[in-house]
Write a structure and sequence with these properties.
The longest helix is centred in the N-terminal third of the chain and has 8 residues. The chain starts with a helix and ends with a strand. It is flat. The chain folds into two domains: 108 residues, Sandwich (Immunoglobulin-like); 86 residues, Macroglobulin (MG2) domain (Immunoglobulin-like, Sandwich), CATH 2.60.40.1930. Strand 3 and strand 4 form a beta hairpin. The chain is built from two helices and 16 strands. Helix content is 6%, strand content 40%. The strands form four sheets. Strands 3, 4, 5, 7 and 8 form a five-stranded antiparallel beta sheet that branches. It has a four-stranded antiparallel beta sheet with strand order 9-10-14-12, with no helix packed on it. Strands 13-11-15-16 form a four-stranded antiparallel beta sheet, with no helix packed on it. By secondary structure, the chain is mainly beta.
């Protein structure tokens, strides 16, 4: 375990791109919930942040599961809008599925929602992305769960052949996770400083190509926020 941690911390130490930061197929980067831990009966907004480097233009479905089964799923991407207003959470696990319509012409069945991993067995990896996260509920005696607040972002263009250093100031965040559909990052994940600063270094692709970069900020309570920018 110690050796694994040292390797993870040293990703990018030799100046090469961290493979974990490179997104070359369809991927749900994050599902941002607001509020992250709604009170009983309170609805929330869910935003799906999607990387689609191959222009699959997938449909995306969300659903929740708990001890009593799974709720009715909701399609959030068929109209091109990645934001959906979700009713009061009823389950313990939130699932998000993005899939090429050629392979997933219909929403997941009830059986597939119960066992979503089975949905992936016959679908090419480049055509599907599945993400699961716990449904957060506020603790009566615990601190309020909040999403990170991005205070300042780098005013730079991601272009050319030189590495670009990105510096962020973020409140209520512990880690920053970086992904790119063009180029990559020296380190996929960095811990924020005590002052709430995250520093990342983007590495351009060997051959110029447009794309996007994503930086996901999260905290130990389960809150998250995402910054994106286009690679020119």
């Amino acid at each position: 375990m110690r050796r694994f941690l040292l390797l993870a911390l040293c990703a990018g130490c030799d100046g090469t791109v961290d493979p974990a930061s490179v997104v070359d197929t369809l991927q749900i980067v994050s599902i941002v919930a607001d509020p992250p831990a709604p009170a009983p009966g309170q609805s929330q907004t869910l935003k799906v942040v999607l990387a689609d480097p191959q222009q699959v233009q997938p449909d995306v479905w969300l659903w929740q599961c708990g001890m009593a089964g799974c709720t009715q799923g909701v399609t959030v991407w068929s109209d091109g809008d990645p934001v959906v207003r979700w009713p009061a959470p009823e389950g313990e696990q939130l699932w998000g599925l993005a899939c090429d319509p050629q392979w997933c012409p219909e929403p997941p069945s009830f059986e597939q929602m119960i066992n979503p991993l089975a949905t992936l067995t016959e679908i090419p990896i480049e055509a599907v992305s599945l993400v699961g996260r716990a449904v957060l509920m506020p603790l009566p005696s615990g601190p309020e769960v909040v999403n990170p607040t991005i205070v300042s972002v780098p005013e730079v263009e991601l272009t050319g052949t030189e590495n670009v250093e990105l510096e962020f100031e973020v409140e209520d965040a512990s880690w920053a996770w970086a992904y790119a559909t063009s180029g990559g990052f020296l380190r996929n994940g960095v811990q924020l400083t005590k002052e709430g600063v995250a520093r990342l270094e983007w590495v351009p692709p060997e051959t110029a190509a447009s794309g996007e970069v994503f930086v996901v900020f999260d905290n130990e309570e389960g809150g998250s926020a995402v910054w994106t920018q286009t690679v020119l």
